């Protein structure tokens, strides 16, 4: 934990330096595509500074000056699988974005979707005995949170204070400057597999990039796809990627739960490829142009030409009805959504005052998905596109760019995390921990 704590602090420091220097690259390393945005900052960090903890401290204004994507290689389930191939994809996409931006970039902030995320809701309290609460008190109360024994092969990726209480006043976003006796805090901790983080860091190092931050794709997609009211009142962002489907739950403008289902759009493509006995590339094209989740009578009559280059005329001239295609796609889409529902139930999502669900990511573009999701998840569901940010090219405004755009917001307005305070590190790591479930019921 201590090494990681130093690592994270060093990355936060690096981010500040990169922003002062004016440019930073953002990298969304997905299973089916790698996307890179390059941001230019105008150096006004702190002008919009509101000192609230978690209110995106130290805001900086920025614009996107470069954008590129490439087909991801060497990534499975959102995790680096073949190092050299992933390295090539990253180099390709960063070079293309640099060319458009006409700048060279050394610092990168990256997000990824795999690594088996696990969420913990922790709480702790200390006595402040009538003093004015300051940074040291905040550090001490975060250190007093019950640390879970999350396993030696796992690391903390995010550790965000999401709520403070001072005596009888709860729901404070920032207790500093207030006077009271007992200070309590709720902390959301997200852990991931260490080896996957190490592989990713190693890969970025091999690309001669300095890492100025790492984030979970589920988190950054939520930041860019959920509108302010949704983040405040309670909402889940479901990010349907190629290899994984990320889930993040927000409340009072903070992520309070995250998880991932190890299935995504590529699995739907594979089902089509196997069902129709056609290559993956053809299956992907057919899915994109003709896919759907709900067949009507008209779809029985709409015939899709499969095409092919096998040389077998009958095989290459085959057609399939759109209804058949939907018949292949729907069971997998249902399976993904059922898995999402299980995760949301485990998180205690139904205890939030509002239960809006927003679907985003490249896979969310399948026609009729929102209606099917409403049926399976039983809530209001909408398709979410990322927030518009300055300079973003039209080609990067679709739901497939939610994570990349979220990274821009994460870079410019990072929420306070554990590492931003001086934490007394001699906490007893073996104390009991509480999962997020109990937390929702009692504190929200």
Give short descriptive properties of this protein:
alpha+beta, 5-stranded mixed beta sheet, 444 residues, single chain, Dna Ligase, domain 1
**Overall residue-averaged pLDDT value:** 84
Beta content comes to: 25-35%
The low-confidence parts are: 45-58, 427-438
Count of distinct strands? 18
Using the CA coordinates, give the radius of gyration: 23 Å
Question: Helix and strand layout, with pairings?
Answer:
Blueprint lengths: L1 H20 L1 E7 L3 E9 L20 E10 L3 E2 L2 E2 L2 H19 L5 E6 L5 E10 L7 H9 L10 E13 L2 E4 L9 E12 H13 L3 E7 H9 L2 H6 L1 E6 L4 E7 L2 E8 L3 H12 L3 H11 L6 H5 L1 E3 L7 H4 L2 E3 H26 L8 E5 L8 H9 L3 E3 L18 H11 L23 H8 L1
Parallel strand pairs: 1-6, 6-11, 12-17, 17-18
Antiparallel strand pairs: 1-2, 2-3, 4-5, 7-10, 8-9, 8-10, 12-13, 13-14, 15-16
Helix pairs in contact: 2-4, 5-13, 7-8, 7-11, 11-12
Describe this structure as you would to a colleague.
This protein is of the alpha+beta class. The protein has a domain of 84 residues: Dna Ligase, domain 1, CATH 3.30.1490. The protein has 14 helices and 18 strands. A hairpin with a 2-residue loop joins strand 4 and strand 5. Helix 7 runs antiparallel to helix 11 and helix 11 packs parallel to helix 12. It is globular.
